[in-house]
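Contributing new complexes? Match this layout with serine.
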Amino acid sequence: MKTILVTGAAGQIGSELTLALRERYGNDNVIATGHKTKPSDELFASGPFQFINCANLNSVAEVVKKYNVGTIHHLAAILSAVAEAKPQLAWDVNINGLYNVLEVAREYGCSVFTPSSIGAFGPTTPLDDTPQDTIQRPNTMYGVTKVAGELLCDYYFKRYGVDTRGVRYPGIISNVTLPGGGTTDYAVEIYYEAIKKKHYTCNLKAGTFLDMMYMPDAIKAAIDLMEAEPGVLKHRNAFNVSAMSFDPEIIAASIRRQIPEFSIDYDVDPVKQGIADTWPNNMNDSAARAEWGWQPEYDLEAMTKDMLKELSKKLKEG
Ligand code: SER
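Output block (do not edit by hand):
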């Protein structure tokens, strides 16, 4: 069998997607790669791991050749807040990295899954019930790289027949690996602080609505889309996918139903707030539902219960 390569395998999504892919397709058939971040012991022990640099084409090509790779889940990327602090780095990783992956995929006949994001929208996008096909004029470096990435993936399919597919992920909430420098990170941190301190100081304002998703659904989206029959896909890349939309007050209320003493106050980060204000309040994901049967399993209440249960265990052990 041709193998599956995961870039960014030590990251927030990669660390869990790699394990899910290994369970589904066999440990040795999923090659985990990272740049500098060391993978967890569990990930490292569960199958092949190699350090690569996606911004260097040969480094990607070598591992694809060595392991006879047929599918690349390209997750290595810089998130929105870090991208504003380091725009040149974001361009190099998010654009040159994706370009190299697509070039290698073209040469070796690989399929490619790449996440886009709610960050691919901007201030002139309709922010409520944001359509699949709409205005995309983001004013952040993260957004610029994500829109360009969507277009590049479409181009490689049309021009070279590379089987590219992708979703626009919302904020992803998980209890295994922390996200690194995104605008939606508050929705992860709030659960850790709820357990540790029963209080959270939020860096986005009350009333800031954003799309969100629990990690098991994010993994399901990647696997379901990559397993869909190609004939059913009208949009290949950048499917809107969402599971819930809330603001800090609503997630705090959901935590309070489990931890009644929990309280929230605000110390707004102007950079993150500025980014969040240009992103959708809630996306319309009917194209993903109609074309490949997208259906999330977790709503806010189910996610809150599971997050608090899993994190309580983890924080007690750790
Ligand atoms: N979670 C990401 C970020 O905040 C959105 O794609 O950067």
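Reviewers usually confirm one structural detail per submission. For this one: The mean pLDDT is 97.
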